[in-house]
Amino acid sequence: MSSDILDNLKRAILDYDPDASAHWATQAVNAGTHPTDILAAMTYAIRQIGEGFNKGDLFLPDLVGGADAMSAATPVVEEEVRRLGTKTDVTGTVVIGTVFGDIHTIGKTMVATLLQAEGFTVHDIGINVTADQFIQGVRQYKPDILAMSALMTMTAPEQRKVIEQLKAEGLRDPLKIMVGGGAITQEFADAIGADGYDPTAPGAAKLARKLIGR
User: Fold this and answer.
1) Of 62, 84, 106, at which residue does a domain stop?
2) Rounded to an integer, what distance in angstroms lies between the CA atom of residue 149 and that of residue 182?
3) For labeling, which of 84, 100, 163, 170 is most exposed (least CB within 10 Å)?
4) Number of folded domains in the chain?
């Protein structure tokens, strides 16, 4: 039953249907499905759209449609995370944002939600974030982790730019840097000097705890 609901949730996102997406997310919560499993299904669907975009099979309206459907479901899952409230101790602090030139928000929002579930204090500084704005966020919030997302191949180099600027301004160590998004691979993360990468939102949340030894 739960798997059928999650399949319907995936389909709603792939069909760019916000009403259906919110409905099936609610049904999943009511069926007792854990938020991590719900977000994993949502991650799968949005990654399918992102991969289609990167291959040239889908276009910007498809990205927007998928994001709208995902956005409709995300608050339902966030509320369930808060209701469960299983994590009470503060694990650490994270600044998270989508890099300059990239306006996608869904993957970032899912990671931020799961980081909160893992006990992190999360400062989401938004989308289309410049290197200077990331630097400002690090100075202001003094995080343990900086998490950067890039969905599109053309915006991925912005992650390298931020890391280089952090080094130049003496802010790179002991900060841990996580990168992710549809355009990112483990090889790219290693090449730009990031500390961690995971292709999924649930995996990224677990990785964050590992990076700071919690």
Assistant:
1) 84
2) 8
3) 170
4) 2
| Long-range contacts (CB closer than 8 Å, 24 or more residues apart) made by 115-118 | 115/147, 115/204, 115/205, 115/208, 116/81, 117/35, 117/36, 117/81, 117/84, 117/86, 117/87, 117/205, 118/87, 118/91, 118/205, 118/206, 118/208, 118/209
Its domain, for residue 50, covers: 2-84
**Percent of the chain predicted with pLDDT > 90:** 57
Residue 54 pLDDT? 66
Cβ neighbours for 174, distance < 8 A, ≥ 6 positions apart: none
Q: Do 19 and 114 reside in the same domain of the chain?
A: no
Q: What is the pLDDT of residues 161-199, one digit of tens each?
A: 999 999 999 999 999 999 998 889 999 999 999 999 998
Q: Are residues 101 and 180 in the same domain?
A: yes
Residues 124 and 26 in one domain: no
CA torsion 149-150-155-158 (nearest 10°) is 20
At 56 the pLDDT is 84
